[in-house]
Amino acid sequence: MIFADVLCVPGDPIRHVYFPIDSFISLVAPVDGYAGLEVGMVGNEGMFGITLTLGVDVSPLHALVQGSGSALRMSAASFRREVDDSPALQRQLNLYLYVLMSQFAQTAACTRFHVVETRLARWLLMTQDRAQSDVFHLTHAFLGHMLGVRRVGVTKAATSLQQQALISYSRGDITILDRSGLEKACCECYLTDRRTYDRVLG
After folding, report:
1. How many CB atoms lie within 10 A of CB 161?
2. 41 neighbors 130 (Cβ within 8 angstroms)
3. How far, in Å, CA of 52 to CA of 65, rounded?
4. Which helix (H) or strand (E) holds 74?
5. Helix intervals (H) in 69-139
6. Which of 21, 12, 8, 17 is nearest to 80 (CA)?
7. Closest CA to 173 of 147, 136, 148
8. Alpha carbon distance 11, 93 (integer Å)
9. Which terminal residue of the chain, N or C, has fewer Cβ atoms less than 10 Å from its own Cβ?
10. What is the 3-state composition of the chain as percent helix, strand, coil, each rounded to the nearest 5?
11. Which residues contact residue 173 at a Cβ distance below 8 angstroms, ignoring those fewer than 6 apart?
């Protein structure tokens, strides 16, 4: 998968499901028809197209490749057949669906109650977890989707984290310099997400 590729847009039928290996996918909710807010992120812990397990074959969200890399792809029809034939697979996918719903809910609360800088720290940690690297690329546009703020808000938050020597940020290239410091700078939402993943998915 290639950075910024669009896998699906709201209202489109889901023709393929994707299982990231060393890539990750941004799930963006449309706002007012043109802007968007990232509400979830999918890495090698999950998949895109989970709504097919509910019998819903239309995407409610934009699915964008946020981190390039490899992924497994399967047609929606083949995926549904595999799920129908395997109760064990269905149970595991139900657990992942629960975790993803929890992530959506946590993001909604985080966006409403926490300041931009702590939210940026949370998303950078989530991105690092899925990128499995201290270095990754995030444009201002993606950061704006992640935080639901304009460019000036992104710049201010990123500059603050950089001045604290937690990250290095230049032309969209981000390097995590101090993960433990970034964990202290983020809100409780990051640890809440991690605990949910660990408890439900092990």
Report:
1. 25
2. yes
3. 20
4. strand 71-75
5. 76-85, 87-113, 116-131
6. 17
7. 136
8. 22
9. C
10. 50, 25, 25
11. 135, 136, 137
- pLDDT for 56: 95
How far apart, in whole angstroms, are the C-alpha atoms of residue 8 and residue 1? 13
Parallel, antiparallel or unpaired: strands 24-31 and 62-67: antiparallel
Judge contact between 127 and 136, C-beta under 8 A.
yes
Distance of CA 67 to the CA centre of its chain: 10
Q: Are 192 and 103 in contact (CB under 8 A)?
A: no
Quick count: other Cβ atoms within 10 Å of Cβ 174?
22
H-run or E-run covering 73: strand 71-75
User: In the structure encoding, which two tokens stand for residue 22, read together?
Assistant: 């060393």
Structure tokens at 38: 């990232």
Q: Which residue type is seen at 12? A: D
How far apart (Å, rounded) are the C-alpha atoms in residues 118 and 123? 9
**What pLDDT is stored for residue 21 in this prediction?**
94
Q: Which residue has the tokens 């640890």?
A: 191
**φ, ψ for residue 113, nearest 5 deg:** -110, -15
